[in-house]
Amino acid sequence: MLASVSCSRASGTALGCRIPRVAFSSRSRLLSTTALQRTRLSSTQKDVRLLPSSSRHFWWSSSSPKTPVEASPISSQLLPPTELLADPTASTEQPPIESISTADASPSTLSESVSLTTDLASSADVVSAAASNVPYIPPAMQYGELALLGLTSYTPAGLSRWTMEILHISCSLPWGPTILATTVLTRLILLPFSVSQLRNTARMAPHQEEILALREELNQARGNSMAIQRAMLKQKALNEKMGVNMLGMIVMPFVQLPVTLGMFFGVKGLCDSGIEALKWSGWAWLPDLTIADPTGALPVLVTVAMNFQLSLGLKDMAPNPNTPHIINLFRALSIGGLAFMFNLPAGVQVYLLTSILSMTAQTALLRLPAVRRALNIPVLPPTSGMKSASFGESIKYVRTWWNDQKKEAVRKAKADRRRSL
Q1: Please, which residues have CB within 8 angstroms of residue 346's CB and are 6 or more apart in sequence?
Q2: 257 to each of 3, 125, 247, 261, 344, how far by Cα in Å?
Q3: Other CB atoms within 10 Å distance of the CB of residue 12
Q4: Is this prediction's pTM over 0.85?
Q5: Domain segments of the chain as ranges
Q6: In the predicted model, what is the mean pLDDT of residues 406-410?
Q7: What are the C-alpha distances in Å from 239 to residues 235, 256, 315?
Q8: pLDDT (average), residues 263-278
Q9: For residues 145 and 168, what is the distance between their CA atoms, to the nearest angstrom?
C-alpha cells in the first residue's frame, strides 16, 4: 500500500498537480508541506509560460516585476520520494510551546519583578500610613446647635457658651483657639473694673498707716454701737481725703467672680456634653479637649502660673495684715488641688492656664509707669506694696486668730450672762 501511494505521488508531482495526502506525524507534515511548496513553485512557473500575453490577472496590489525571476532547477528542489514518507511508528507528540516561566526567566527579570513588587508594597504602606496620620476633623457646627442641646441660657455659664459658639462659627476657629480667644475676651471685658480697683489701691498705698489704725479701732469697737459709728465716720473722711471710691472696690468682686466661674462651668459643660467637634482642638499636641491632658503638663503649668500670679499681684493689693496669709492659703489650696486638676478635661485646663497668664500679663503691663500715667493710676515707688509671709508665719497667725476668736466668744458669753442677771 505504501508503495502505491509513493508511486501515485511521484506521478502526480511529475504532472504538476496536487494530490492530498495524510501526514502521520508532525515531522512528516512539515516535510510534506515544504515539498509541496517547492513543487507548486516549479509547476506554477511552467503554467505561467503557457499563458497568453493578453491574459488578465487579479493581483491588483502589485505590478509585474521588472526583471524575470530565475527558476531554480527542479532537480535541486525536489526531495526523494523516500524522504517524503515518514515513519508511521514516529511519535505524534506536539513540540512544546515556548512560554515565559519563572524557571526560564533570566535573573535580571526576576530581580526587576521582585523589586517592582516590593516598591508597590512599600508605596501602599506609605499611603496607608499617611492616611492613618491624617487627623479626623468633625463637621462644622451651625448657629443654634448649642441652644438645641440646652447649653445656652442667660446664666453666666450659658452666656459664656453662647459667646464661644459665636466665635467658633463666625471666625472658623477650632475649639482650642476658641476657648483661648474667649478667655482673653473676658479679661478685656473685666479690664476697666481691674483698672478702677488698681487706681483705688494705688491711692490708698500712701495712707497705709492710717488705714491700719482705723481698722484696729473698728476691731476694738465690737459690741459698742457708738464706737462703731465714730470709726465709720473716720473711714468716710479718710476715703474722701484719698479720693477713693469704695463702691468700685466693692463691686469688683461681684463682677469678676460670676464671669470667672461662668467661664469655668461653661467650658466644663461643653467638654462633658459629648459634642464631637470638641474632640478636635486644632492642636496636634492636645487633640481631644473632652478628656484629661494625657501628658499631665497642663495641671502642673496651671499650678505654677497660679502661684506666680499670687506673688506678683501681692504688691498691688490693698494694705491689709491678713492679705499675705490669705495668699498662702490659696497657695496651699493650689498645691493640694493638683490631684483634682489632673482629672479635669483638657479644655478646662486650657481655660485656667489662659486666664492666669492673661491676668499675669495684665498685672505686668499695668505696672509700667507710662501705662499708669495714661490710665490716671498713681505711680508707686519700687519699695511699695505688701510683703509676702512664710507658711510658718501664716500657721502662727491662724493659731493667734483662733485663740482670739475663742476669747471673744467667752467674753460675749460673760456679757450676755451679766445682762440676764
Answers
A1: 271, 281, 286, 288, 289, 290, 291, 292, 293, 298
A2: 127, 54, 16, 6, 20
A3: 14
A4: no
A5: 1-42+75-85, 150-389
A6: 84
A7: 6, 23, 20
A8: 90
A9: 12
